[in-house]
Amino acid sequence: MIEILKMNRLKLQGDHSETLAQFNVRVGPFTMRSGKIRRSYADGKRFATLPGKRDGNGIVLSDPAVREAVRDAALAHYSENFDG
Questions:
Q1: Secondary structure (3-state) at 3
Q2: Is-contact 12 30, C-beta < 8 A?
Q3: What is the pLDDT of residues 33-61, one digit of tens each?
């Protein structure tokens, strides 16, 4: 089960992309904090990034299908709540 718990708009400029939002997500019994929705400067496409061990989260999703499902859920949540 994947559930976006909280998502807030955020405006941060980076070297290659800008951060549009930050989110927390529940994946099964675990909660991951500080995922990001970003927009690439190169092509304008949005993408989601997940926190890793270096962010102090302590949880890394090793299954690529689960990572992709979390990213898809975060992007869908952003589109439903912040577009338009």
A1: strand
A2: no
A3: 899 999 999 999 999 999 866 655 567 78
What b/e string do you get for 35-49 counting C-beta neighbours within 10 Å, with b at 16 or more? bbbbeeeeeeebebe
Shortest CA distance to 69 belongs to which of 19, 35, 34?
35
CA angle 63–70–31, rounded 5-degree value: 90
Using one digit for the tens of pLDDT, what is the confidence trace for 14-31? Answer: 999 999 999 999 999 989
Q: How far apart are CA 70 and CA 76, in angstroms?
A: 10
pTM over 0.85: yes
Work out the number of other CB atoms within 10 angstroms of the CB of residue 21. Answer: 20
